[in-house]
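Usage

Read records sequentially. Each one opens with the input sequence:
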Amino acid sequence: MFGWEFPPHVAGGLATACYGLTKGLAKHNVDMIFVVPKAYGDEDQRSARMVSAEEVTLEGSTAEVTTLWKNLVYFEAGSYLLPYLTPEEFESITSTPVRGDTITHTSHFVRRFKFAGGYGKNLLNEVAQYALLAHTIARQNEFDVIHAHDWLTYLAGISAKKASGKPLVIHVHATEFDRSGENVNQMVYDIERRGMAEADLIITVSNLTRNIVISRYGIAPSKVITVHNAVDFNTSSFDDVQRGTSEKIVTFLGRVTYQKGPDYFVEAANKVLKRYSNVRFVMAGSGDMLNRMIRRVAKLGIADKFNFTGFLHGADVPHMFALSDVYVMPSVSEPFGISPLEAMRAHVPTIISKQSGVAEVLRHAIKVDFWDVDAMADAIYGILQYPALTKMFIRLGDKEVESLKWDNAALKVKRVYEKAAAMGATLY
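and closes with the structure output:
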């Protein structure tokens, strides 16, 4: 299994999903090797053995490495490996002429790569290096199926497939259309499309995402299987949290980016405050729209009713849910959305956008179009104003979220593995 992050080092929902899934798969007797670019040593390895790619040595003849590079990293190489190789290594790997499998220069190549981890400015460098190292990792380990999570690991999955001949399953947690709307990064889109084309089976986190994969990437429907995400029932909870205010608290928790719809949350908050004063709004998270949201709140004159917490780590997340009276996820395009399940598990009435995958599985959450700030404001006001409504959503939400466990999702993923293993690897 190739991932990009793993708790406790969390930058978003991907790490949470990978952790929940590995624990669920372990309960169904699936043995896993979980590969990350950079391991820190404090990861929970009870469910999967952790391999840090930066501890793996890429070794072989320059001919072998060059052929692997040219087969895998098809985008412009101009600057992506330059900071990590000597000029001689870079020239040898990226410029050596190829005739079939014959390369004129055959010196020995030994190299380790350092990974910063996360999503820094050298992200594409690290995606490429991760793919090169995946070839070595696949040759050093025994396994039946390869599972690659999101576009950052698709090239690594392809590399492992070429090294081992084992079937590749990719897991689409989000697409470039979710992250960027119609202004897609062409390089990321190309990597996603190649991963989908070379995968033997594709898991999507919702039917919403499945339809995007089929319609926007040209993938055969028979190849794409939906397995909805779930919620971890073993994480911390704060049932008796002490509040520092008598006001009601309405929370947005997620990346403060276009995809998550933070601007719609602010506009809805402004409308609610015109009708209901005993309330405080919290935006928990960080992202490229954060400063814009702070300026908008100030311009609307509601700064005394608004808190920005920044990015929340670890136990701070369930703590925030425990403080909340209403949770709102106004995402513009949300492949799934685990946070509403976490909120409902914390007994918090939840409002979600209809443009989210989680809307496919939840019946006892209020669903609104992300752009309809009037409907969003009405929903927030209704929950704040009418205690009976709050009690109803808490009671029904508790029962509903009980069935959305990672054990159940993991069993469906295991069946995908079995199907892929029975099919064998499709070579391109």
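Summary fields computed downstream for this record:
- The longest strand covers residues 248-253.
- The chain has two domains: 13-57+112-230+411-423, 248-402.
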